[in-house]
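Example record used in the benchmark description.
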Amino acid sequence: MANQKEKKLIVKQSWCKGCGICVEFCPKNVLALKHEKVEIVDMENCIKCGLCELRCPDYAIYLGGMEDEK
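Model output (structure tokens):
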């Protein structure tokens, strides 16, 4: 299992319904809604807290390890 530093924020655009819940819960404004889908707009500011993953009702965003990049 990847440690916290190796984890990366991953968005499954096809699963996103554009509700914006993850955007509202992100404490560092890493996410934004563009064209009715969530996008990562400031990855360098991400603290990998996992609130976006926790709150997404569609499982469209998550913190994954290096093996999830495919």
